[in-house]
Amino acid sequence: MSRRVQGLRLWMWQRVSALYLALFLLYIVISILMLEQFDYPQWHAWISGPVNSIIIYIGFLMLFAHAWVGIRDVIMDYIHSIVLRSLTLMLAGLGFMVCLLWLSRVLIKAILT
């Protein structure tokens, strides 16, 4: 695959994830405003619903995809040493993976309790 096609695909991921994040934020705000009262039992009931959990999980997947493309571009543009660039990309990717695993744990725990 050519470098141009890869760049276009990443550009497209950035735009699609931004659109989903905008709609996701709108959904979250409207859903929270529609709750009768915003306390822990209401929030827990709302977040433990299967549809909301899936929407939230996809929202964070899109957030991480969006952030990864942005961070990757900044790192590729401003860190010129190949070793340092590779290490920085690896640490950023590892950080995103840890955050995603933590989010999965939180959502699973919220659904099961």
Which key phrases capture this entry?
113 residues, mainly alpha, 3 helical TM bundles of succinate and fumarate reductases, 88% helix
Give your account of this protein's structure:
- The structure is a single chain.
- Helix 1 (3-34) packs antiparallel against helix 3.
- The mean pLDDT is 90.
- The chain is elongated and about 55 Å long.
- It has four helices and no strands.
- The protein has helices at 3-34, 40-47, 50-78, 82-112.
- With 113 residues, it is mostly helical.
- The protein has one domain (3-112): Up-down Bundle (3 helical TM bundles of succinate and fumarate reductases).
- The N and C termini lie far apart (46 Å).
What's the helix and strand layout?
Elements: H1 3-34, H2 40-47, H3 50-78, H4 82-112
Helix pairs in contact: 1-3, 3-4
Helical fraction = over 70%
How large, in whole angstroms, is the Cα Rg?
18 Å
Number of helices: 4
Helices and strands: which structural class?
mainly alpha
* CATH topology label: 3 helical TM bundles of succinate and fumarate reductases
Determine and state the CATH class.
Mainly Alpha
**Number of structural domains:** 1
H/E series, N to C? HHHH
User: What is the residue-mean pLDDT, rounded to a whole number?
Assistant: 90
Short description:
This protein has 113 residues and is an all-alpha fold.
